[in-house]
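Subject: Sanity check before I submit

Could someone independently write out the structure tokens for this chain? I want to compare against mine line by line before I put it in a report. The sequence has 212 residues.
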Amino acid sequence: MKLLNAAIGTLMIGLFALPAFGDNDGGKHDKGGNNECPVGEVNGMSLDVEFGPGTQELTRCLKKRHQVKMVVQIFQLCANGAPSCTSGYALGNISNILDDYEITHGMTAGRDYEVVAVLHGSGGRMALKNAGIDGGGNPVTGRNPFQGQIEGLMARGVKFYFCQNTTRGFIRGGMLPIGGATGQMIEGVEYTTAGLTSIADFQALGYQYIQP
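---
Independent answer below. Compare away.
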């Protein structure tokens, strides 16, 4: 009995002596780390230099750094409205989100965070190639001046989903050919059956809803 008690005691000591791995691991493990921010400097300057003395102490940083999931609703094409339309709706916001996660907080896409965007309404045009053919088979260009930005965000891990109800509307309106809409989409963009129900579904799966 004494030998058994001694063995149990040795085992318990060994268990308590094992290193504890929490979230605050400095980025040494695959799940990432909760380093104090800023981990990196967005504009190459410390916060105190960029904004003024004392800024670092006044800055709130992210507390959740792992398994962060976000769904962005994009229902407009232009951020600054027609007829200028020189800025894509929400695209700058998404870029800033990625910079904050990756540069300021040292997070990694796919490991620490996921960002998806649902395109519907006039925002559905962002799913299309800038140049292609319309519903009558005629060559068109200029329908999505933000194709390059979309592709750049996709290269950084953002996933874009095109509402099929919006797609049907584009076909009825002559913007897209019946039976050929998929071929007019930017490579890598995926469909969702309905934009709004997919947003609710993403939320049910733990994604936080963002509408810029």
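---
OP: Matches mine. For the report I'm noting this point. The longest strand covers residues 68-74.
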